[in-house]
Amino acid sequence: MRRSILTVAAAALTVTAIGTEVSARDLTVVSWGGAYQEAQRKAYFEPYIEQYGPLRDEPYNGELARIKAMVETGDVTWDVVQFEAAEMVNACFEGMIQPLDWSRLGNTDNLSPLAKMGDCGIATIFYSTILAYNGDRITEDVPQDWADFWNTEKWPGKRGLRRTPTFTLEIALLADGVAPDEVYDVLSSEGGVDRAFAKLDEIKHDIQWWEAGAQPPQWLAAGDVIMTAAYNGRISSAVDEGQPFEIVWNGQVFTLDGWGIVSGTDNLDEAYDFLALTNVVENQARLATEIPYGQMNGKVVDMVSAEVAAKLPTNPVNRTNEVQFDASFWIDNIEEINERFNNWASR
Predict the structure, then answer these.
(1) What's the half-sphere exposure (Cβ side, CA atoms, 13 Å) at 53?
(2) Tens-digit pLDDT profile for residues 149-178
C-alpha cells in the first residue's frame, strides 16, 4: 500500500523505513517501491543521509496527475522523482519538472550518451520487461517466447500484464509474430494498433492486470498467475530470496528510467546533491549488485561480479531479439492509445 504524504505534525514523530527522523520538508525522493526501492536505500538513500542529512523516500505508481497538482497549487512535497522515458518527456514539457543544470550533477564523465533524457532528466537505469514463470509449476517444455505466453491451451492459467498500453502492445505484436526490429514500424502503420488489440483480445479473459512492479513476483509465488510480464530486477531479486522463478530474455523490451526534479521544490540544492551522489560509480555498482538493472556508468560492469553481470539486461547473452522501447512513438500517441486501452481493459 502506498504511504500517504505526512502532515507537519505527524512528520515530527515519524521514522522512515531506514530509521531517520523526518520533518515536512526534508528531501523527499519518490521511486517504484518494493525490492527496487529497497536496493536504492542501500545504494543511494543511506549514503545521502550519512553525507548530507535527512532524506525520506516514498513509492508511487507513476501518477503524473499528483505531481501536476503539487506544482499547480504550489504545495510541492516531492522533490526528486523517478520517471519512465515517455513520462519524463511529458512531465518536462508540461512544466512538472525543471530543466537540469548538468554542471551540478557531478561524476558524469563515464555516463552513457543515453543518460541525458531531454532537458529535464538524467537516466538512472536500463531495465527490461521480460517473461517470467515459476519453475516449480512449469517444469518441462517451458515457455520460450511471448507466443508461448498466449498459448493458454498448453499452459492454462492467468497471465500477468501491466495495466498500460506501453510495453503491452509491443508484447502483443511480438506474440503475433512481428520481428523485434519491426514492432514500431507496425505500430505506426495503418492497422498496427488494431492488430495489437486483436491479439490481446485472444487472452483478455486470462489477463490479471498489475500496476506495481512488486506484484508479478508476489503473484507467481502465490500461484495467482502461471506466467507474467515483469521487470527483470524484481524477478532476479525474488530468485535471490529463494523463489524458483525463471526469466525468458527472448523478446525483452528494453528501456530507461530517469530522475527529475519537481518544479517549485524548496530543496533544490539538496536535490542536486542527491543526483550527484547517484552518479558515483561505486554507488551505481552497489545498486546493480543489490538488484540487477543496467547502470549508466560504463565502468560498473567491471566492478560487479560475473554472477551479477550475467543477470543484467545489458549483458550481450541476454539481448536475444530485444526491442528497444521507443519513447518518441509513445509521446506522439500515448493520449489516444491510452484512452482506447483504458476503455478496452474496463469492458
Answers:
(1) 10
(2) 999 999 999 999 999 999 999 999 999 999
